[in-house]
Write a structure and sequence with these properties.
By secondary structure, the protein is mainly beta. The protein has a domain of 163 residues: Immunoglobulin-like (Sandwich), CATH 2.60.40. Helix content is 3%, strand content 49%. Strands 40, 41, 45, 46 and 47 form a 5-stranded antiparallel beta sheet that branches. The chain has a 4-stranded antiparallel beta sheet with strand order 4-5-6-7, with no helix packed on it. A hairpin with a 2-residue loop joins strand 13 and strand 14. 30% of the residues are buried. The N terminus is likely disordered.
Length: 501
């Protein structure tokens, strides 16, 4: 690595170490940043935000992304259609809404270079790319400093990158020199000085000279990276089980857990009887398994972890206590919308339907059983739509004694808004993309005496008409909501078939 690269990276790391951790959090439809105590350090004014990296955080205002510093000052004005985290002083951004138009910017927002092919983010001063089916690595100035003769590769980790083909793997340094060569593929990357590999049919860990340092792991079939001095090991199969070893190869957490994540900041999440809990590095249960979901990309990085429990979503500390929860209950009750910055939605094209059942737990009916399935829209009951617009609530109620099974795709049900055109014909105002992947399709179950709530946008337009919703329970069964009055733009009508776009 060149000397000025090293000085630059050292300065960035020093900056990061003095910055207190901040976490994106949403309140009244806008995102700000809280501290480890759950207090807003940067007020919620953004439409979307990502975590801080190297002193800056990407934030979205309307459709464009920019970057703020830890005081909330806008350092790079919003002008990008997507914005990645900073690493090695570079961030990967999109310059166009559609089409390949990537660029790397510096921390002043200036474009350093535009890759002509798909390129990953920078890691340790290099960004992985592919040129004519050969893995290569850009340096910070956008120069293709390393071009290998292998078709596949990983980003640099601890000064070493793994590249491979069908019958061999190589580990290279930042000069592009091969330091270790192994037969086959599927070997791990280096983390904390070790890499899990398979040599002569045996699972082992090697150091950066290629020397085997842990070789007593024949009982497992998959080795994972070290993190916090611990590495997950797994017996693969339909009922695969996992546990953890230390750097001496000693089993600390028994290989008997069906779902367990890597250690982050001293804790590892595990699943038991459908609930998530946390182990410490001694293999003891540090936080009892009571959580419905754990976001483990960041783990307890900075001291907080994002979880979901009993309908609540938010951050917990390492004692398992919520320090901040996101208020998602507004969908199920009457709220004061004056605290929200809402507007009616004016659009001149159809929308893609977004009726997600993820994080949308069914609620229990408090009224008498209806003895029917009902789809109901209440135009007088205002709720936020997409966090920015006034919306009406859509109730899907199962008042029968049977569980209602609804066809779904990637967590979305086909619940679409329709309106009467000038000829009195019902036309769609929303589209629904059919996936070509068979794994995308599944069933959503709504138990007896339960209901879902979704949000319907309140449109602003010059055409007054009648609206309703259509739900496809399956290919052969549809139900419709009550009809209500509203305004739209005539250009919102979908002219083609569903799934066309």
């Amino acid at each position: 690595m060149k000397i000025h690269h090293l000085i630059f990276l050292t300065a960035l790391l020093a900056c990061e170490e003095t910055t207190k951790p901040l976490f994106p959090a949403k309140e009244h439809g806008r995102v700000g940043f809280i501290n480890i105590d759950g207090e807003f350090e940067i007020q919620p004014t953004y439409d979307e935000a990502k975590r801080f990296s190297e002193g800056l955080a990407a934030v979205r205002i309307d459709s464009l992304w920019g970057y703020i510093d830890s005081t909330g000052t806008m350092i790079i004005e919003p002008k990008f259609y997507e914005a990645g985290n900073f690493s090695s002083g570079r961030a990967l951004v999109d310059l166009k809404y559609i089409g390949h138009a990537q660029a790397f910017i510096n921390q002043l927002g200036s474009i350093v270079f535009k890759p002509t092919e798909y390129t990953s983010s920078f890691h340790e001063g290099f960004a992985k790319t592919e040129v004519n089916n050969r893995v290569g690595y850009y340096n910070l100035n956008g120069e293709l400093e390393i071009l290998t003769d292998y078709p596949y590769g990983d980003s640099f980790s601890e000064g070493i990158a793994k590249i491979w083909t069908g019958d061999s793997s190589r580990y290279i340094n930042k000069k592009g020199e091969t330091i270790i060569k192994l037969s086959g593929m599927g070997h791990g990357q280096f983390s904390e000085g070790l890499a899990g590999v398979r040599i002569n049919g045996q699972n082992v860990y090697i150091n950066k000279t290629g020397e085997v340092v842990i070789d007593n792991l024949n009982m497992v079939g998959v080795l994972f990276d070290f993190s916090d001095g611990m590495a997950k090991v797994t017996i693969p199969g339909v009922n695969h089980k996992s546990g953890f070893i230390n750097r001496q190869g000693e089993i600390i957490i028994p290989v008997e857990h069906h779902m367990i994540n890597d250690f982050h900041n001293g804790l590892a999440a595990f699943l038991e009887d459908g609930k998530w809990g946390f182990f410490n590095k001694k293999g003891e249960v540090a936080i009892s398994p009571t959580f419905d979901y754990v976001e483990w990309e960041f783990g307890f990085e900075g001291g907080l972890c994002w979880v979901r429990k009993d309908g609540l979503r938010g951050y917990i500390n390492k004692s398992g206590q919520f320090v901040w929860t996101q208020d998602d209950s507004y969908m199920y009750g009457n709220i004061d919308t004056s605290a929200w910055k809402l507007d009616t939605l004016e659009t001149h094209s159809y929308l893609f339907a977004d009726r997600s059942v993820f994080n949308n737990d069914p609620h229990t009916l408090t009224a008498d059983t209806l003895n029917s399935i009902k789809l109901f829209v209440n135009p007088k009951e205002i709720t936020p739509f997409a966090d920015k617009y006034f919306g009406n609530k859509i109730y899907l109620i199962n008042g029968t004694t049977d569980t209602l099974q609804i066809d779904a795709q990637d967590g979305q049900i086909e619940l679409l808004q329709q309106a009467l055109n000038e000829d009195g014909t019902w036309l769609y105002l929303e589209n629904f993309i059919d996936s070509r992947c068979g794994n995308s399709y599944h069933d959503v179950q709504l138990p007896p005496n339960k209901y879902f709530v979704f949000s319907s946008p309140v449109f602003r337009g010059d055409f007054t008409t009648t609206l309703r919703y259509e739900l496809s329970i399956n290919r052969d069964s549809k139900i419709y909501s009550n009809e209500y009055q509203g305004t739209i733009s005539k250009t919102q009508f979908l002219s083609g078939e569903l799934g066309d776009f």
